[in-house]
Inverse folding.
């Protein structure tokens, strides 16, 4: 089975992200694989272990995104491909989906696994949009995956409970945390990844044209500063503390 | 200005942000509610009562179970035939998918998790959080119709006018199903954190009560989970009293204390209740990004240096096993319950 895991590179979630001169700045914080996409790689590796085959990590991004792909290789992915092109600087999710779909067709896949959403943009649209462009079924927010011959069944984790869904391969999936903790790169994995050469494909290589962005940013702002003046509630007994705290909460008129 | 409002429901249970979307749509002009699925007549009637000018009801067996493909095709077919300027949806797992796909069909884009929306000529400017809420952006969509999923509790809920009638037009489903629903399980209890006005959350601390003696025969891990369940019972009591929902940190979920559906934070849900009470939660950045938009944050933690106190309005340094039940009692008295 050929499995593709789609990953993006984002600033680490510990980074102090700020708006500076209309641009996003994260200082010298490291860029990492999008945390949700580590679950995508984990899910892909689990399926490879269950059914055999290969895992390809696929990313659209600048040269620096090779580091995120190397993380996927170190976790155990068999190969990694970077799609990089100056024409892709202002990509929205529709554009990303079109370029990913073209790359997926070129690579060939039985199953494509996405993360739930990106940390930076946070749209959570790309998986379903890629599925739509490909015309493949979308099984989103899977917490469990089971491949059986030519079909795949997932347990979707939804607000209302779990929904079990099935579709024929090829299919597009997205996964959530319930899939299992992403494995740590092994020593051997890290060595292999550091030596790997990652092919870089241009738009021309994947046979796509530069998609004109439909969704664009008009303004970037820092959120209003939160004045967190913390009032510590103290007392001799839990009952006394609770009494005071209850009064404070009621005075806030939030109930 | 004509707006489609997709009313998201699961077997007749409507996501309240759907009504908030309807109120927003009315502020721009005509609001046409879309209700998909069989046995949803009551949902359609409720849409009229909440102010929809008209309802398009796709009461079709092809839509009995939600599937992204058929729901998206039905949405885009209706948009093509009715040409709305704007399509609003509440932000849910389902709507992210179906809006994403319909946008491909209609050659437009989706603005997700929107907390503000202004008309701008014949288009719109949306306000939305990015980088886990560390930044705010204003975005525009050059496609037609503009599509936006709105964040729960960001817009006022319109009043319901019982018995208000109107036109409900039956429409057909579109698209071909390429997946099948095999069933549902309530293994993870239904929890709607996005719409909760009050959330009481438990972290790893809920298992930390050495004075509780677990039933005989449990190994260490079972005893830990058992203790945690006693802790969550206290949290649930308080949440129930306040008419709220139960949240959890990832450590609590990973520890098997409670299901993933309750998780607040980066890999769980982003919530914005009026009141958030964090009990035995340390306040890691990945948890904070999920709850810092709460109006009032209360933290109960044994450790005076726990980072959660930095974002809290009120803090109590103490044992949650003592403070939480005492707070429940105090609240009961003061609320006259
Ligand atoms: C990629 C990634 C994504 C993540 N996503 C999330 C997420 O979505 N949500 C999330 O929550 N975390 C997330 N985390 C994990 C996060 O970093 C923390 O590990 C987690 O939030 C810690 O949970 P906790 O506060 O319950 O546990 P701890 O950090 O162990 O804190 C327990 C707290 O309980 C207090 N305590 C103990 N006993 C008592 C008692 N009897 N009474 C009162 N207080 C007591 C302690 O003082 C301590 O402060 C993520 C991490 C990563 C790397
Ligand atoms: N530039 C990219 N390259 C590869 N995969 C991506 C890219 N952007 C988004 N994805 C995938 O799509 C998912 C959702 O992204 P988004 O719609 O931006 O929230 C991510 O978790 C990734 O799996």
């Amino acid at each position: 089975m050929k499995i593709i895991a789609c990953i993006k590179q984002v600033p680490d979630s510990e980074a102090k992200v700020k708006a500076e001169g209309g641009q996003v700045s994260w200082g010298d914080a490291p860029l990492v694989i999008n945390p949700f996409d580590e679950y995508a790689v984990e899910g892909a590796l689990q399926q490879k272990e269950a059914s055999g085959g290969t895992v390809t990590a696929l990313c659209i991004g600048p040269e620096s995104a090779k580091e995120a792909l190397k993380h996927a290789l170190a976790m155990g992915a068999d190969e990694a491909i970077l799609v990089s092109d100056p024409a892709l600087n202002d990509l929205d999710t529709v554009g990303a989906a079109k370029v990913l779909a073209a790359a997926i067709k070129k690579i060939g896949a039985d199953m494509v696994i996405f993360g739930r959403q990106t940390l930076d943009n946070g749209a959570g649209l790309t998986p379903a949009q890629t599925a739509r462009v490909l015309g493949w079924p979308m099984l989103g927010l899977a917490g469990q995956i089971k491949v059986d011959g030519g079909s795949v069944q997932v347990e979707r984790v939804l607000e209302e409970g779990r929904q079990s869904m099935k579709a024929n391969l090829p299919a597009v999936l997205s996964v959530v945390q319930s899939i299992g903790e992403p494995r740590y790169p092994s020593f051997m994995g890290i060595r292999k990844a550091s030596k790997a050469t990652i092919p870089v494909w241009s738009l021309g290589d994947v046979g796509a044209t530069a998609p004109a962005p439909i969704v664009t940013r008009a303004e970037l702002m820092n959120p209003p500063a939160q004045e967190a003046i913390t009032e510590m509630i103290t007392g001799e007994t839990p009952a006394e503390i609770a009494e005071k705290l209850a009064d404070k909460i009621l005075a806030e008129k939030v109930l | 200005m004509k707006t489609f409002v997709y009313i998201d429901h699961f077997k007749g249970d409507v996501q309240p942000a759907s009504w908030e979307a309807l109120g927003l749509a009315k502020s721009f002009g005509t609001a046409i509610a879309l209700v998909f699925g069989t046995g949803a007549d009551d949902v359609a009637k409720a849409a009229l009562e909440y102010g929809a000018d008209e309802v398009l009801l796709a009461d079709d067996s092809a839509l009995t179970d939600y599937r992204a493909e058929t729901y998206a095709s039905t949405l885009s077919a209706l948009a093509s035939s009715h040409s709305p300027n704007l399509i609003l949806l509440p932000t849910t797992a389902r709507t992210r998918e179906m809006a994403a796909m319909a946008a491909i069909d209609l050659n437009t884009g989706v603005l997700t998790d929107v907390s503000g929306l202004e008309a701008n000529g014949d288009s719109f400017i949306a306000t939305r959080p990015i980088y886990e809420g560390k930044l705010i952006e204003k975005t525009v969509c050059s496609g037609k119709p503009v599509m936006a999923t709105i964040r729960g509790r960001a817009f006022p809920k319109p009043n319901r006018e019982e018995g208000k009638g109107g036109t409900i037009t039956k429409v057909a489903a579109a698209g071909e199903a390429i997946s099948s629903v095999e069933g549902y399980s309530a293994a993870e209890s239904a929890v709607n954190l996005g719409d909760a006005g009050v959330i009481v959350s438990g972290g790893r601390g809920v298992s930390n009560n050495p004075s509780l003696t677990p039933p005989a025969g449990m190994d260490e891990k079972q005893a830990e989970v058992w203790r945690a369940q006693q802790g969550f019972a206290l949290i649930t009591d308080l949440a129930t009293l306040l008419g709220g929902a139960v949240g959890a940190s990832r450590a609590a979920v990973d520890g098997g204390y409670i299901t993933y559906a309750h998780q607040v934070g980066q890999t769980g849900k982003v919530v914005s209740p009026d009141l958030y009470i964090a009990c035995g939660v340390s306040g890691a950045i990945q948890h904070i990004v999920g709850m810092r938009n709460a109006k009032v944050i209360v933290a109960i933690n044994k450790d005076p240096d726990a980072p959660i106190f930095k974002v809290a309005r009120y803090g109590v340094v103490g044992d949650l096993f003592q403070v939480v039940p005492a707070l429940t009692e105090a609240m009961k008295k003061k609320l006259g319950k």
User: Anything to note?
Assistant: Residues A 35; B 203-205, 208-209, 249-252, 263-268, 280-282, 284, 286-287, 290, 300-303, 306, 319-321 surround flavin-adenine dinucleotide (ligand 1) (CB under 6 Å). Residues 220-241 of chain B form the longest helix (22 residues). The domain at 193-335 of chain B is CATH 3.40.50.1220 (Rossmann fold).
